[in-house]
Amino acid sequence: MATKKKEDLKDLFAEYPNLYKTASDDEIDACMSFAEDYKSFLDISKTEREFVKNAIEACESVGFVDIETKKTLKSGDKVYSSIRGKGLVMAVVGKKNTGFNILGAHIDSPRLDLKPCPVYEEDETCYFKTHYYGGIKKYQWTTIPLAVHGVVYTKDGKAHEIEVGEKDDDPIFYITDLLPHLADEQMKKTPRDFISGEDLNVVIGGMPVKNSKKGDKDIFKANILKYLNDNYGITEKDFVSGEIEIVPAFKARDVGFDRAYIAAYGHDDKVCAYPALMALLDQERPEKTCVTMLTDKEEIGSYSNSGAQSVLYENFLMELFSKQTGKAFDLLSYRKFISSSKMLSTDVSNAYDPKYASVSDRKNTAYMSHGIKIEKYVGARGKSGTNEANGDFVAEIIKVFNDNSVSWQTGELGKVDAGGGGTISAYMAKHGMEVIDCGVPVWSMHAPYEVISKIDLYSTYLAYKSFIENI
Ligand code: MN
Ligand code: MN
Question: What is the Å distance from ligand 2's center to 108 Cα?
Fold first, then answer.
């Protein structure tokens, strides 16, 4: 049987144009206003804990409740579960008892964590020792303003939250670098060795404790420990239980005279987590049950009980299934149900950068401002470690996007053998559901200050919304 032929030759070609070229004034306004909300949310959500706290606040304000408080669930019910305060999973119950429509992002970002015994003084300066978290270029973390965010637990179990470096009159923290005048030896090194992991030590003070006597040791350290005790009620030993993150003190800012882009810390992956959250909050009575998962520890392999490999996320899905169907839980029924679910693994990818063109195949890369990127597979070398989405599912996604006028593009993460990466998609695909990676292209990914395009952010929000409402 002959299939229908295209009338015009140009219809045979794939084109993924820059969306700013054709966007109407109304579309630009909508994308600029979405970007303002995103920036405000990002500035108060630099760590996974802060993101969870703010996301719970946002979802409770539109009627979400902890799933534990519900015996059964009916269409329109909105529930969530905090995953140890560092991950979050939320759902709006649909009219049909079929598989879930899931959006899954991660909310941890590369950073410097404190070591368990972090405070020391050397030659009259006091420092925090750190252990970097996730894949970073270490030299990028020197000579930038840093903030301290996190929590320390004292032995009575009480949490002591610390956040310093964000307010305009707060002090910031700092990792020094060598002056160029004396950097001859350093500049001969490869960038990997400009500064070692052990040398990522953060300046936190430079005054001795008051009333110290001649011969007293560690008087600079004593001054900082006293400050921490006076202000947070903690002692040096309490850092053992600490989860203190050193993050850039930058706020999200527009980039360019025309404000086309946003620079911020932690776009990876909050630039997907935020639209995934917003798309869910838009739902009132969806056809199918819609779920947004915000996971922790993706940057270090999705391990720990707050990472995507943890059963805690699956427990929520099981509870949701069980309370929605109202029947006694049966594992095989659940497995069949969950394998009929569909998911967008909503994570960022690299955007083609003309300054570093050699790492990308220009015919198979995402471009800044060309819309959300559909990525059939990620991985490294011969697609190692990836979840590869099934072709029929890819076609289904494209149809939903096209039917809802969502602009999208596609590509790989760099040239073959140039490197690679992974996302949470593989951990969700093992439950049998259809999963595809789909998110925002980023410049300078994993740098302390990353860049995205506002129109890609908005196209991603529209894409996630169209997916959970229509797939
Ligand atoms: Mn990511
Ligand atoms: Mn990442």
Answer: 9
325, β-bridge pairs: none
371/455 same-domain check: yes
Question: Are 115 and 95 in the same domain?
Answer: no
Backbone angles phi, psi at 371, to 5 degrees: 100, 180
Looking at residue 128, which CATH number applies to its domain?
Answer: 2.30.250.10
> How far is it, in rounded angstroms, from Cα 113 to Cα 141?
13
Residue 429 lies in a domain: yes
* Helix, strand, coil share (%) of the chain residues, nearest 5: 35, 25, 40
pLDDT > 70 fraction of the chain, expressed in percent and rounded: 99
- Ligand 1 centroid, distance to 372 Cα (angstroms): 14
* pLDDT tens digits along 394-447: 999 999 999 999 999 999 999 999 988 889 999 999 999 999 999 999 999 999
Same domain, 211 and 221: yes
Q: How far is the CA of 273 from the centre of ligand 1 (A)?
A: 10
Residue 365 CA to ligand 2 centre (angstroms)? 17
- Domains in the chain, number: 2
- CATH number of the domain enclosing 50: 3.40.630.10
Beta strands 101-106 and 342-345 are: parallel
